[in-house]
Every structure is written in structure tokens, then in C-alpha cells.
Amino acid sequence: MTSEEVRVRFAPSPTGLLHVGNARTALYNWLFARRMGGKFLLRIEDTDVERSETRYEAQLMEDLQWLGLEWDEGPGTGRAGDPLENERGAYGPYRQSERQSTYAGLTQKLLDEDKAYRCFCSPEDLMAEHHLAVQEHRPQVYSGRCRRLSREEVEQRIAAGMPFAVRLKIGDEPLRFHDIVRGPVEFAPEAVSDPILVRSAQNGGPGMPVYNYVVTIDDALMQITHVIRGDDHISNTPKQVAIYRAFGWPVPEFAHLSTILGADRERLSKRHGATSIASFREMGYLPEALVNYLALLGWGAEDGKTETFTLAELVHAFKLERVTPSPAVFDFDKLNWLNRHAIKQTPSSRIADLVWASFGERLPARADASEAVHAWVARLVELIAPSVDKLDELAPKAACVFGFDPDAARALPENHAVLAADSARIVLAELADRVRTNSAKVTPELFKSWMNEMKAVTKVKGKELFHPVRIALTGVHSGPEFDKLLPLIEDGAELGLGIPCVHERVERFVGV
Ligand code: GLU
Prior knowledge:
This protein is mainly α. The chain has 21 helices and eleven strands. The protein has four domains: 3-96 and 260-332, Rossmann fold (3-Layer(aba) Sandwich), CATH 3.40.50.620; 99-257, HUPs (Rossmann fold), CATH 3.40.50.620; 346-393, no CATH class; 406-511, Orthogonal Bundle (Arc Repressor Mutant, subunit A), CATH 1.10.10.350. Helix 1 links the parallel strand 1 and strand 2. Bound molecules: glutamic acid. The site of glutamic acid has 7 residues, from loops.
């Protein structure tokens, strides 16, 4: 590694699904690494044993890969079957649960060097201190009582088996760091007091190192140059700076990303609808649209107007300096607009593959389907996809081809008025006549000539003419243009998928 190489990390805790906020953090880290020709690491912060679950770890790796955010170093690449195997990189292990001995060794070093001390205060002692501070209107920080214990006192207490936490000695210097999004940030040492590094041991077991401590150790040992994360961690950063200082490690650059809000300006949460990456995938958002949208949540292009980007274009355009400190508001309409755009940019065959299973039992399994069937499904997608925001809207639209059911069509309330009109009965009788006397495959030209004749004969035109015909053929009175729909129906019928042809539809609907 050269000393200038950029190294960034995404450090999720596997305690739940990957949500929009964390996914944006991952994306900004990835984009910055790719733009700078650096490395993007994945580190699993699974020290909360009670809440961490392997399935969440597997899911978040899958989500990152689905978004296209491959990591250069970290646990499991997911490529060789088991997503949790195959760690790669020279700075592992990349799961905090596997790094406990490293933390323990460094704690001993700090104690030996007198940069940290054992704190024997019980929870009750600390609570009493806290109450006193509140009464006396002093900041509620640790008094540093155990910092003043003599070596003998400490040894006596250890010998007596008293449990202890380990605290860092904070000096008198202000705690400063540079934030690329917010500029220079400074905290007074009193605001931090002597933070706990390792919690008091319970039941004779080893004490658990705290988040601020392990995250700093890992970032330093993994040679992280830029820490890019959510702004809920700003207040943790001075403690981390103090830990870097105690070890004599260089302090990295920071970039704290603003909070993401819902339309009501409250922090984005489940109340605002589904916000996990897995649920966006299920709803039929394309990863490229989601990535494009996440990029715009707090960052904008230099020209102030371009909004559609591929991942590769983002790598080129993304600059951490242009990330705004103001909160970003999540806008589902804009995401939908980008998804529509992405759907239009995507070959129909790929969309067809993604939605195949949702098209129902008339289709054979994707792997078993002939090339002709694949091509036909792609044509269907091409016809119906331009009008949807999300891929989960395609199956209902495809019902105009797959779901022919005359009884259901008659029962649909919005069809009642159309079908009840005298004109509809007359039009459909004429249509049935033509079907009976002409067995040719119904091309758009033939169909157009039928419609013109029917218009001339019945004097019915416009909606009154077209709506009943459409209902008879597709079950609903609106849908894709006949010029493309009819050949699709006729070709689909020929493929032996059990899709009724135009003749069969009219015969079954009107009862020829
Ligand atoms: N595990 C922490 C979180 O998920 C990571 C914080 C950090 O990036 O330092 O919030």
C-alpha cells in the first residue's frame, strides 16, 4: 500500500435489514473509493452478540452485491456458494467478534503506558455522581475519581476481585478533527470526560470493549484514511480522536452524512413506508435506479441539473466535497421517476427475466423456455413496461394477455356500464360475425378493416366502439395499443402456452 492510497470502509452492525440511510453510506464510501482508485472495505460490527444475526449479515452482503457495491476487502464475497465464507484482504479478520484478542492486547498496552486506568465505580456510585451533578447544575460527566487512585489501591482492589471498567485519560487539549462535509470540528475535553473503553466485567467474564474503542482500533489497524458515515456518529468522534491520540495513530479524515428525512421532515423510518433495500427489490425497483436515487440524497452534480446517472457515471462525477450537510428528504415520486427511466434504459429481455416468475403458470420455467418463448415474453414486456413505475406492476398489466376470463371481465364493476349499452351488444355481435366467417390469423390490418366495417355498419364510434371490443379481448377497457397487442396475442397462442387467440376470445366472450 502506498501511503496516499485511499482506504474507506462500510461498517454495518448485522442487527437488522440494510436500510436506505446505511445503503447511502455504503454507496458514498464505494463511490469515493472507486473515484480515488482506493479500496472499499466491508467490516461487520457484530459485537452486540444478543442482537447480531448471521442471516442479517448474509442479507446485507446480498443487498450490497445487488446494488453493485462489491467490496475489495472483507468477509465473504458471496461468489462461492456460502456468502459468509472466503474472507479476502490482508487486514482481517473483518468481523469484530473475531478481533477480541487484538482489542485486549491494546487495552493492556494503554494500561501499561498509563494512558488508561481501571475504574472500580459501581453503577450505583455513578448514578449518585450523576444526580449530584444535576443538582449542582454541573455537566453530567464522570468525575475521574478512580483516575486518582494510587497503584497500591488499584492492586488491592484487583486482588479483592472487584470488577472494573477501563477508562481513557483525556488530556486538556481540545479534540479536533476535520470533516469534509462540515469543515473543522472541535470539542472541549470536558465534554468527553474520561470515556469507558472496556465495560466492567460481568460474572467474572472478560469486559466488553465499547463501540468507540473497537471502531477506532479497527479503523487504525485497517489503515482507513477516510471515515464516511452517518451524522449520528459526530458526537462519538471526539472520543475516537482521543483514542487515536492515546495510541499515537494518525487521525483520519471524516465525512459525516446528513440525516435522511421523510416528506413530513421527521427522520425516515418504517412509518414512511418500506425503506429496506430488500423491500425495494421486492417491489421491483432496479438496483441502478436505487443507486442513482441514493446518490442524489445529499449530493448533486456539478452542473446543478443532471439527475440520471449510471454507476459508472457516478464514479466519474461523485465528489465528497459536494456532499451537503443539510438533511435530505426522501422523495418516492423522484425514485419512481428514476425507476421508470431505468426501466426504459434496460433491455426488455432482462426485465423479462426479472419478472418471469410473476407472470404465472402459463409460462414454463425460465430455464426450460424455448428461445421463441423468451423473445415473445420480451415483446410483451416491451409493450407494457413503458407505463409502469415499478416491476411489480407488470404482472397485473400482463393479465391482458395471460388472464383471459370472460366471467371475471363481465363481473368487473367498471365494465358494467360499457357492456350494458345497446351499442356494445350490437358491436360485439358484429365482431362475432366477422370471427365466424373469417378464420385467418388476426393481423392489425385485418382488425383495422373489421373495425372500419363495424363502424360503418353500426354507426357506433369512438369509446362506444372500442371499449366493448377491448373488454371482449382483454378483460379491461384500456391497455396497450391494438397494433402491437393483437400480434402478441396471436403469436402467444401459436406458442402453445394455452393463451387463447383472438378468435377464441371473441367466441368465448360473445358466445358465437
Ligand atoms: N456499526 C456502526 C453503525 O452501524 C458503524 C459506525 C461507523 O461507521 O463508525 O452505526
